[in-house]
Amino acid sequence: MSIDGQYDPENIFAKILRGEMPCVKVYEDEQVLAFMDIFPQAPGHVLVVPREPARNLLELTDGALQGAMLRVKRIAQAVKKALNPDGIVMTQFSGAPAGQTVFHVHFHIIPRKEGEALGAHGGGQADMAELQVQAEKIAAAIEMP
Q1: What does the pLDDT look like over 101-112, one tens digit per residue?
Q2: pLDDT digits (tens, 9 = 90+) for 18-31
Q3: Angle at the Cα of 30 (from 91 to 49), degrees rounded to 5?
Q4: Buried-most residue among 81, 104, 105, 108 (CB within 10 A)?
Q5: Helix axes 62-83, 128-141, angle to 10 degrees
Q6: Which residues are catalytic?
Q7: Which residues pair with 50 in a beta bridge?
């Protein structure tokens, strides 16, 4: 699937945003919903999903992009404070050839530990109880103005 195309309001993230599918919530406001990736590349992997319906970053309005990026930064700071990783990867894939698998724009925040390999994108499903514990730690560390 190319970078261009029609937005599908039935994609999994649209359903999560509407409350039709569950998620392990980290943060939400009028701009974004952040939740744990159930197929994490590392423990503490968070997804930040703008509420605006757009397939990828190039389709987001400037206002939605600005709002999302401020929240990505603050949630990444909370990941750092809560989990004390050695580094943090923040990524966004636009189009299937770039690695995008869900066609609603979203940002990955992935804590990294020195010497630990990054798991496969969309690899094995995490234990939901562990995700809940991680989400609570991260949520408690979020500082929004």
Answers
A1: 999 999 999 999
A2: 999 999 999 999 99
A3: 20
A4: 105
A5: 100
A6: 106
A7: 32
Domain boundaries, the chain: 12-141
Q: Are 134 and 109 in contact (CB under 8 A)?
A: no
Q: Average model confidence (pLDDT) for the chain? A: 94
CA separation for the pair 37, 40 (Å, rounded): 5
* CATH number at 12-141: 3.30.428.10
In whole angstroms, what is the distance from residue 91 CA to residue 21 CA?
A: 24
Task: Say how far residue 70 (Cα) sits from the centre of its chain.
Answer: 13
pLDDT tens profile 71-125: 999 999 999 999 999 999 999 999 999 989 999 999 999 999 999 988 887 778 8
Alpha-carbon distance of 27 to 101, in angstroms, equals 22
Q: How confident is the model at residue 1 (pLDDT cuts 50, 70, 90)?
A: low
Q: Which pLDDT score is estimated for 2?
A: 61
Residue 59 structure tokens: 């389709």
Name the amino acid, one letter, at 142. Answer: I
Enumerate the β-bridge partners of residue 32: 50
Is there a contact between 3 and 94 (Cβ–Cβ < 8 Å)? yes
